[in-house]
Amino acid sequence: MKMNPSCPLCESGGSTLLHTSHQKNLLRDYFLCGVCDLVFVPPEFHLEPSVERDRYLTHNNDPEDPRYREFLARLWNELKPRLSPGSSGLDFGAGPGPVLGKMMREDGFDVVLFDPFFAPDREVLESSYDFITCTETAEHFANPRQEFENLKRILKPGGWLGVMTGMLAEWKEFPDWYYHRDATHLCFYSRSSMEWIGSHQGWKVLFPRENVVLFQAPE
After folding, report:
1. Cβ pair 139, 187 in contact under 8 A
2. Contacts of 50 (CB under 8 A, 6+ apart)
3. Domain residue extents for the chain
4. Residue 147 has pLDDT above 60, yes or no
5. 135-146 residues labelled b (16+ CB within 10 A) or e (exposed)
6. What mean pLDDT is reported for the chain?
7. CA dihedral (103, 75, 51, 8) positive or negative
8. pTM (2 d.p.)
């Protein structure tokens, strides 16, 4: 009998099947972790990197689109007041159109970009930062435990990590949720998941608005 997969965030066993998608071109399972409350897609359903990259190129991330800027401002407007002028930041998962990085630079912050496909200079991950933004990126993590450990490593004491990702209040709503219908989305978080991450990393956790989470490292 096949065992259910271990959770890629807390690494515990005992996950349960939450949902199976039978959509055309998206046949995959979603498992719910009973420890950290993460919903995840097992590796056998993950896209090949070249296919994943092509999917991202279909996204319309126009730097001059006021609606897209307004969307990203949901996180930036919550994070910016908590930062000292001239703070150094990293936009982690900048994507093919790094609009947030442009917005943060316009506001006078020193920001570098990283994206495994579109800004793959890993040298920027050897520095440390006063703040890190991660907008519409955490849901793409194939290995969220490793990714959050890496973010912890490069976040300065007292620094802020801002995450924006879709979250549900009740997993019973998952089958009808649009968010899991994107084949590049692999992890789905709840407030409980984010609280688990904060506790595991030793970060303070704030939920200033819907789908926005702010973590602060200890001084």
Report:
1. yes
2. none
3. 16-216
4. yes
5. bbbbbbbbebbe
6. 94
7. positive
8. 0.95
Amino acid 63: pLDDT = 66
- Three-class secondary structure assignment of the chain: CCCCCCCCCCCCCCCEEEEEEEECCEEEEEEECCCCCCEECCHHHCCCHHHHHHHHHCCCCCCCCHHHHHHHHHHHHHHHHHCCCCCEEEEECCCCCCHHHHHHHHCCCEEEEEECCCECCHHHHHCCEEEEEEECCHHHCCCHHHHHHHHHHHEEEEEEEEEECCECCCHHHHHHCHHHHCCCCCEEECHHHHHHHHHHHCCEEEEEECCEEEEECCC
The domain made up of 16-216 has a fold known as Rossmann fold (3.40.50)
Model pLDDT for residues 6-48, shown as the tens digit of each residue: 999 999 998 999 999 988 789 999 999 999 999 999 999 999 9
Give the whole-angstrom CA distance, residue 106 versus residue 111: 10
CA dihedral sign of residues 17, 1, 26, 15: positive
Long-range contacts of 123-127 (CB under 8 A, 24+ apart): 124/90, 125/150, 125/154, 126/154, 127/90, 127/154
